[in-house]
Amino acid sequence: MNILSKTVIITGVAGFLGSYLARNLLKDEKVLVIGLDNFSTGKRENIEDLLNYPKFQFVQFDITQPDILNILGFANIHEIYHLASPASPKFYQAIPFETIEVNSKGTYNMLELAKRTGAKILYTSTSEAYGDPEIHPQSEIYRGNVNTWGPRACYDESKRMGEVLCYLYHSLYRTPVKVARIFNTYSAGLRNDDGRVISNFVTQALTGADITVYGDGTQTRSFCYVTDTIRALMLMMEKDKANGEIINIGNSLEYKIIDIAHLVKQFTNSHSTISFQPLPQDDPKQRRPDIQKAKNLLGWEPKVNLEEGLQLTINVYRKKLSI
């Protein structure tokens, strides 16, 4: 009979990153994973296979509710990965108040849980904390250029508020908290209807729909394959020198959106037409992380290049769509 080495909480476990993280943690038979999700944007199908794992427990719950502290406040918890939040503009703009609440009240509850149980906690923030950056690439000391009066503010600003709460718990209570500012992560695990660049382009190319590029496509992004992002999060949790630190997690290679569209067309052998639509309000023109801090503190950098990651993503999407 295996003796548990640690119990790990994952909020947002039915989401893209949460479900992938859970599978990685469960490779260790001595780890118990308790997954929390209210299915606001996560999907039950993402965790169907996990329900068969003897060391996985799922609790359908809204972490913004204070009852969560009564439910788990006396448990023997070692680590908390706080991933819960809508992450795609399509979803967080549809439920802006819920997005604000999970990143503020939900984050407070998870920090309080960590304080009560002595657990280490990792908060997943976002590159959106930099807004439409005026400094390029973006390092962790850059304070950002964020519009508080626009459709993206509910996500950008609530994530920044979550960072403030993390700072307070670390500085006032010495809670071992780490903050990951995650840049664009992708794989076939992204929902087809997610609305983000890679999922949109691949789905459109495979189905023969127009590939929708917003603006003229010269805006840039950096894309990190999910295995690299998850590896970084696990390293952050493991290393005590990441306590009290904000660390960029992303790929430092930068691509124009129009070039991604052409690359997806090429890899899918698609005859889709690239169509141009108006650029959404506050859409950043450039986005690329400075990852020197991750290299120094974690010994981490991405291993999967864009071409390899796109091929992996396309192959799985093709099967999902039966094309």
Automatic annotation (TrEMBL):
Which organism is this entry from? Ectobacillus funiculus
Which cell locations does it reside in?
Answer: Golgi apparatus, Golgi stack membrane
Bilayer-spanning residue ranges: none
Task: List, for all copies, the residue spans of the domain called NAD(P)-binding.
Answer: 9-311
Q: Does the keyword NAD apply?
A: yes
Q: How does the record say this protein sits in the membrane? A: Single-pass type II membrane protein
Q: What is its main location?
A: Golgi
- In short, the EC number is 4.1.1.35
Query: Per its UniProt record, what Pfam families does this chain match?
Result: GDP_Man_Dehyd
Q: What is its cofactor? A: NAD(+)
UniProt record similarity statement: Belongs to the NAD(P)-dependent epimerase/dehydratase family. UDP-glucuronic acid decarboxylase subfamily.
The question of whether Cytoplasm is a record keyword is answered with no
Look up the domain of life of the source: Bacteria
The name under which this protein is listed is UDP-glucuronate decarboxylase
PANTHER family xref list: UDP-GLUCURONIC ACID DECARBOXYLASE 1 (PTHR43078:SF6), UDP-GLUCURONIC ACID DECARBOXYLASE-RELATED (PTHR43078)
InterPro entries from the UniProt entry: NAD(P)-bd_dom (IPR016040), NAD(P)-bd_dom_sf (IPR036291), UXS-like (IPR044516)
Which pathway does it operate in? Answer: Nucleotide-sugar biosynthesis; UDP-alpha-D-xylose biosynthesis; UDP-alpha-D-xylose from UDP-alpha-D-glucuronate: step 1/1
Q: Supply one GO molecular-function term.
A: GDP-mannose 4,6-dehydratase activity
Q: Which UniProt keywords apply?
A: Decarboxylase, Golgi apparatus, Lyase, Membrane, NAD, Signal-anchor, Transmembrane, Transmembrane helix
